[in-house]
Amino acid sequence: MTRADPCAFAALAAEQLINGFGIAALPVDPFAIARGRGIEVVPKPSRDAGVSGMLIRVGNEFAIAYATHIDNKPFQRFSISHELGHYFLPGHIDAVIGTNGIHESRAGFTSNDRYEMEADRFAAGFLMPRHLFFPALERAGRGLAAVESLAALCKTSLHATAIRYTQCTRDPVAIVVSVGSRIDHCFMSEALKSVDGIDWIRKREAVPRNTPTFAFNQDVENVRRAVRVDETSTLQDWFGGSRSVEICEDVIGLGSYGKTLTVLYDIALPDDDEEEDEGFLIESWTPRFRR
Ligand SMILES: [Zn+2]
Fold this sequence. Notes:
291 residues, alpha+beta, Beta-Lactamase, 5-stranded antiparallel sheet
């Protein structure tokens, strides 16, 4: 992850489209938007479990097929939005559709292919456009409860919603997706990234041992049965550094997805300026005697 986000434009493009369509309330309906453009949307079981959907071109006509082997409405809505990303983003149609007129997608933040990543970011911006998502986020509370209420509002998966939450919130928060003892991926909010003296959590690193997430992942049944725990850990457990700060750690199993979602929040960062001000106050209150 770098400061200059190469895929950010894809979410912006989606938000501009939603704005241009005059959509002023959540949830966004990708079926209706596709059909409004004359794009047929059809369910299709896939033989390849990794394929989330397809964009099909016949001449100048387009159709979207979405995989039904994953019986998950939020994921299907995300998959259709991903295909719309290929349809709307400049250069995608020519780049992704093969000579057979078909593009097979692997949506859901699992691919490292540039076009798949851009279409995923488009889908997130499309279903959770910032201008509608941010006001809802401000009313949604904190932590996993906020992610759950936003997911219900946007009809999006907990995973996609949690990622969007880190991109739109003003608070220092992070979400971590893990499998067993390994971190699969992590997203940190801008407010957390700008904190000095913390280590960024990275892919493929170990889940820190003394955290609720580590304990949770010891039992695969927790993941399968979508068990949920609200606990606490510390800033150092996850991010190193010298600050002893207790933080909230909500953990939930993502069921058949086979992964665990952790939301780290309520991170009360010691304000350096405040400490300085306090020092200044103490000094100014210390009587000084003339000799
Ligand atoms: Zn794709």
